[in-house]
Amino acid sequence: MKVKANNAFTSMLKNNIGIIFVLLIMCVILSITSPVFLTTDNLISVLRQVSNNVFLALGMTLIMILGGIDLSVGAIVAVSGTLTVGFIVNNGISIPVAIALGVLIGVLLGFFNGIIIAQFKLPAFIVTLATMNIAQGIAYIYSGGRSARITNDTYTLIGTGKLFGFLPLPVLYMIILIIIFMVLLNKTRFGTNIYAIGGNREAARLSGVPSKKVEIAVYTISGLLAALAGVVLSARMYSGQPSVGSGYEMDAIAACVLGGVSMAGGRGRISGTIFGVLIIGIVSNGLNLMGVSSFWQLLVKGLIILIAVLIDAQKGKKLPFSFKLAK
């Protein structure tokens, strides 16, 4: 078991050596420019901040390996958090039931994406763009465009609590999900099927891979993760806000591509995605510590996404406008 663990760790380092090197260089530069960066409090803060993106990026990794994309995850974060808080504050629904209903709507929206894409063979870019607007519309219609504040400690502890008074619960959730999805993608038939479909959909079909079922399941999982992120985020923010989530999908996509997930499908690893998330998070944290305007931060993130896609394109993968979303 120890030999296998060592081999797995060595393989992870080898497969992500480039992005690990970039991450280390960034940390060295930021530690020089800001003495606060390497403090324990700041590093924990970074992990807490990136945990939300990890939720989304894990689902996005599966979808992109499959050859698709999901633009609706940010809106699902908003609608799930808004409805969950609203159910508790405005409708008097118990916390467990409200959370279940909030997560359920995310699952249903993800399932809707999967059904439409798999059954009707429509481009995922268009379908998930439509679902993004549907989810945003639901959040704004239910809330009337207003935020709902919640002060119930039982609920807010979901996002603000700490394990042993040290480890933020969102970070704990993040670690658990990373382990689950690494096993799911690397050690199960379901994960093998995802790679097979992303690599060659027709060959996978002829080999007996249930492509439609896998595709529906992957988009449903993405909706589930986005909904969970919405609940945790609303608990951290002490409110359900229909305006949150804007641009979250782009951060998740950027993290995946930075981590080596091909936008053409068939290639990618959870470990790479996690390093990609860390780069996005550290860039944001570093710019905040240096007092850089949020407007400039948007510019920097945009350039990072562009560079990541250009690097991916140079790996010999064809990247048409539709990102190989449908065949």
List its traits.
74% helix, disordered C terminus, 14 helices, ABC transporter involved in vitamin B12 uptake, BtuC, globular, two-stranded antiparallel ribbon, two-stranded antiparallel sheet
Walk me through what this model shows:
This protein is mainly α. It is built from 14 helices and four strands. The protein has one domain (43-313): ABC transporter involved in vitamin B12 uptake, BtuC. The strands form two sheets. It has a two-stranded antiparallel ribbon with strand order 1-4. Strands 2-3 form a two-stranded antiparallel sheet. A hairpin with a 3-residue loop joins β2 (162-163) and β3. α4 packs across α11 (211-237) and α7 crosses α11. The relative contact order is 0.19. Residues 317-327 have low confidence and may be disordered.
List the helices and strands and how they pair.
Layout: H1 2-15, H2 17-33, H3 40-66, H4 73-89, H5 95-120, H6 124-143, E1 148-149, H7 153-160, E2 162-163, E3 167-168, H8 169-187, H9 189-199, H10 201-206, H11 211-237, E4 239-240, H12 248-258, H13 270-289, H14 294-313
Antiparallel strand pairs: 1-4, 2-3
